[in-house]
Design goal:
heterodimer, A: alpha/beta, Rossmann fold, 6-stranded mixed sheet, globular, B: 11-stranded mixed sheet, 10-stranded mixed sheet, 7 helices, binds adenosine-5'-diphosphate, binds magnesium ion
Chain lengths: ~250, ~425
C-alpha cells in the first residue's frame, strides 16, 4: 500500500533520512521505533508533503502511485492522514467549522458530495464522544487552550471521522494516561481493515499492547536498520537502540 | 515662525493662495505640507504624494453603491466635499448678525443637520502636526446634532471622484444622554486628494458607536482627521464611545484620531486594515487623558500583502492629575509577502502616578505550522490562508456588537484579498 524507496531528506545541511526503504502492505499495522532525533517525525512530514521536508532523492508510492508531486491537501484527499506529534492550536478558527471545511474539501477533491451540516454534526458528535472531548471544549477555537492529551484526542477524533486510507501516528501515545491510550487503541482497531494501512511511531511497548503491530522497524541513522515481529518492541524497551544505532554507522 | 522657508511645491503654492493669512498659512509657508521629514508623518509622505498642482474638484459625477448600510438610519451625503441637502425636508435659514450664514434641517425628531457657508475660525487650532485638520476646518461646515435624550442612526457617506482636491468639515454632537450610531464612509473613485475632518463631541451620559469604512481607493490620497471630545461622567454615568475603522488602503491614506477624555469616560479606538499591491494606510491616534478615570482600550490589526505599507502610530498622553487612567494599546500586523512593510510606533507619555498603561506591538507572517496542519487535513492552500486571515481580523471584528454591521465589515474585509 505504502512503498518508500531510497528516501533521502536533507534539513539544514544534514542528511536526516538517508536512503530509507519501507513497505507497509494494505491491512497491516507497522510500528517505527527509534532514538530521539532519528528522523521519525521527518519521515512523517515528508510522507504528508510538508514543503520544507521534500526529499532530495527517492520516491513515495501510495497504492503504486507516486505522491511526491502532490500537495499536502492532495495527499490528504488521497487518504494520507498524519496524527501530529505536536498538533498546533489555531486561534480564532472555530473547531467544527475547520474540521467540516477540511472534510468537505477532501470530498470535493475526490468528486464526492459534500456533507450537510446536519450529517456532519451527527458523526462529529459520535466521534467526539468516542474520544472523550466535551461539547464545551469543542466550542473553543481549534486546540485553543487544550492540554497535550486533549490535542491527541482531537487527532484521534479527526482520524476516526476522515476514515483515511493510510494513517501515520507520530507518538500519539506520548503523554497519554491509560484511559486515553485505550481510546487510541479503540480508534485504531475500529479502523483496522484490509484496505487500510498504519504506520505507528512510538517509544513504548504499552501502545502496542492495544494495537498489535504486524511488523516493527527500527529507524536509526536515517534508515530502517532492523525489522522484526511484534516481539521486537519488548526487546527494544529492555536493551535500547544502542545495538542498532551502531549498525547504522 | 522659526526656521527658514523651504521651496514650496506647486501644490503648496496653489493651496496657500486659498488659505487666509493666519498662523496656519505661516506654518505651511515655512514647512510645507507634512511629509518624510516631519516626525509624525515620516512614514506617510503626504508632501511627496502631492507635488503636482491639483485643481479644485469638479461636481461629483460618478455613481457609487454604498459599501455598508444600516437599517433605519438617516443617510447624509457629501459629494466631493459638498453637503447634499437632506431629502424631503424644508431648510430654515440660519441668521447671524442679520445675515444668512447657513441653512438648518430638522431631519427627524431630535436630529438636526445644518450647513454653514463658512468653516470655523481655524486660528486657534494650528497645533503642530494638525495642519491637515486645521485646513479642513476652513471648509464650509456641516453640523449634525443628536439632541439630548434621543437615539439616532446616521450614515454619513463621503463620495469623491476626479483628480482634483477637496475637503470637508463635519461637526457632530451627541447631546446629553443621547445614543448615536454613526457610520462614516469614504467612497473614492479616481485619484483625488481628499482632506476630511470630523469633530465629534459626546456630551455627558451619551453613548456612541462610530464606524469609519474606507474601501480601497488605489489612486486617491486621503487624510481623515477626527477630533473627539468625551465629556466627564455625570450622575455616575459615563460617556461611552466605540470606534472602529476599517481601512482598505489608498495611494496614501491616513486615518488620524485625536481624542480627549475630559474625565471619567470609556473609549474603544479599534482599527483593522488590509492592504495589497502598493496600497498605503496610516492609522494614527493620539489619546489625551485630561481628567481622572479615563479608559481607552485600543486594538489595531493589519494585514499587508504585495508591496503595501501599513503604518500605526499610537500615543497615550496622560496629563498630570489624570489619576486612575486605564489605557491599553495593542497593534498586531500580519505580513503576507516579503515586499509588504509595516511601521509601528506605540508611545506612552505619562505625567500621573496612579495609572495603568500598557502597549503591545507585534508583526509576523502566517503560522506555517498551522498552515501545514490545515493542508494535511485536506484544506487547499488558498482556503487555509483565508481561514487564518479571517481569524486574525476576526479578533477586531468580534468587538463590534451590532451583528449586521459586523457581518458587513467582515464581508468587506474578506473581499479585500
Ligand atoms: N525543519 C528542520 N530544520 C532543520 N533540522 C531539522 C528540522 N526538523 C528536524 N530537524 C532535525 O532532524 C533531526 C530529526 O528530527 P525528528 O525527525 O524530529 O526526529 P524524531 O522525530 O525521530 O525525534 C533532528 O536532529 C532535528 O534537529
Ligand atoms: Mg518526533
Amino acid at each position: 500500500m505504502l512503498n518508500i524507496n531510497n528516501l533521502t531528506v536533507t534539513l539544514g545541511g544534514n542528511k536526516i533520512l538517508n536512503g530509507l526503504d519501507l513497505s507497509v502492505p494494505a491491512g497491516e499495522v507497522h510500528a517505527i521505533m527509534g532514538p530521539n532525533g532519528a528522523g521519525k517525525s521527518t519521515l512523517s512530514y515528508t510522507v504528508a508533503g510538508r514543503e520544507d521536508y521534500a526529499p532530495t532523492d527517492g520516491d513515495i508510492l501510495l497504492e503504486g502511485e507516486s505522491i511526491l508531486d502532490m500537495s499536502p491537501d492532495e495527499r490528504a484527499a488521497k487518504g494520507v492522514f498524519l496524527s501530529f506529534q505536536s498538533p498546533p492550536a489555531i486561534p480564532g478558527v472555530a473547531t467544527m467549522n475547520f474540521i467540516r471545511t477540511a472534510l468537505n474539501a477532501q470530498r470535493r477533491a475526490r468528486g464526492e458530495d459534500e456533507m450537510t451540516s446536519a450529517e456532519f454534526l451527527k458523526v462529529f458528535r459520535e466521534h467526539a464522544k468516542t474520544v472523550g472531548l466535551s461539547p464545551e471544549k469543542l466550542k473553543r477555537p481549534f486546540n485553543d487552550g487544550y492540554s497535550g492529551g486533549e490535542k491527541k484526542r482531537m487527532e484521534m477524533l479527526q482520524m476516526a471521522l476522515f476514515e483515511p486510507r493510510f494513517c501515520i501516528m507520530d507518538e500519539t501515545d506520548s503523554g497519554l494516561d491509560i484511559d486515553a491510550l485505550r481510546m487510541v487503541g479503540e480508534v485504531v482497531n475500529s479502523l483496522r481493515g484490509p484496505d487500510r494501512g498504519f504506520l505507528v511511531i512510538t517509544h513504548y511497548q504499552r501502545l502496542l499492547d492495544y494495537v498489535k503491530p504486524d511488523r516493527i522497524h527500527v529507524l536509526a541513522g536515517g534508515r530502517i536498520v532492523h525489522s522484526g515481529g511484534p516481539e521486537l518492541a519488548r526487546e527494544l524497551e529492555e536493551s535500547g537502540y544502542e545495538q542498532f544505532a551502531s549498525e547504522a554507522a | 515662525m522659526a526656521g527658514s522657508p523651504i521651496p514650496l511645491t506647486a501644490f503648496e503654492d496653489r493651496l496657500l493662495a486659498e488659505v487666509p493669512d493666519t498662523d496656519l498659512a505661516e506654518l505651511l509657508r515655512s514647512r510645507g505640507l507634512p511629509g518624510r521629514r516631519t516626525e509624525t508623518w515620516k512614514w506617510s509622505d503626504l508632501r511627496g504624494a502631492l507635488r503636482d498642482v491639483r485643481e479644485r474638484s469638479r461636481v461629483y459625477a460618478s455613481q457609487a453603491e454604498a459599501p455598508i448600510s444600516l437599517g433605519g438610519a438617516t443617510v447624509l451625503t457629501l459629494k466631493n466635499g459638498i453637503p447634499q441637502a437632506p431629502h424631503g425636508v424644508e431648510p430654515k435659514p440660519v441668521v447671524k448678525g442679520g445675515e444668512k450664514v447657513g441653512s438648518t434641517y430638522v431631519v427627524e425628531d431630535g436630529l438636526v443637520v445644518s450647513f454653514y457657508d463658512h468653516g470655523r475660525d481655524a486660528e486657534d487650532e494650528t497645533l503642530p502636526g494638525e495642519e491637515l485638520s486645521a485646513l479642513a476646518a476652513l471648509r464650509p461646515l456641516m453640523s449634525v446634532s443628536v439632541l439630548p435624550g434621543f437615539t439616532h442612526k446616521i450614515v454619513l457617506r463621503r463620495l469623491s471622484d476626479g483628480e482634483g482636491t477637496h475637503g470637508d468639515n463635519v461637526f457632530v454632537t451627541v447631546g446629553e444622554g443621547a445614543r448615536a450610531t454613526l457610520i462614516e464612509t469614504h467612497e473614492i473613485t479616481g485619484s483625488p486628494f481628499v482632506n476630511s475632518r470630523t469633530e465629534l463631541e459626546l456630551d455627558a451620559k451619551s453613548v456612541c458607536e462610530r464606524y469609519i469604512v474606507q474601501p480601497a481607493a488605489p489612486g486617491a490620497v486621503l487624510v481623515h482627521s477626527s477630533v473627539l471630545r468625551l465629556d466627564e461622567a455625570k450622575d455616575e454615568e459615563t460617556v461611552k464611545l466605540k470606534q472602529m475603522t476599517l481601512a482598505l488602503g489608498a495611494q496614501l491614506a491616513r486615518h488620524e484620531t485625536r481624542l480627549t477624555h475630559l474625565g471619567e469616560s470609556e473609549a474603544k479606538i479599534d482599527a483593522l486594515y488590509r492592504l495589497s499591491d502598493s496600497l498605503h494606510t496610516d492609522i494614527t491616534s493620539h489619546i489625551t487623558f485630561e481628567g481622572e478615570d479615563g479608559v481607552t482600550d485600543q486594538l489595531v490589526k493589519g494585514i499587508g500583502d504585495g508591496r503595501s505599507r501599513g503604518v500605526f502610530q499610537g500615543k497615550f498622553l496622560v496629563q498630570r492629575g489624570a489619576q486612575r487612567t486605564d489605557a491599553q494599546m495593542a497593534h498586531h500586523a500580519l505580513l503576507l509577502s516579503k515586499g509588504a512593510q509595516i511601521n509601528a510606533k506605540p508611545e506612552l507619555e505619562i505625567y500621573a502616578d496612579d495609572v495603568e498603561c500598557a502597549h503591545g506591538n507585534t508583526a509576523g507572517a502566517l503560522d506555517t505550522d498551522a498552515l501545514f496542519y490545515m493542508r494535511q487535513r485536506g484544506v487547499p492552500e488558498d482556503e487555509a490562508h483565508s481561514l487564518l486571515i479571517d481569524a486574525f481580523g476576526g479578533e477586531v471584528l468580534d468587538r463590534v456588537e451590532d451583528e449586521t454591521v459586523r457581518e458587513q465589515l467582515a464581508a468587506l474585509f474578506g473581499g479585500a484579498a
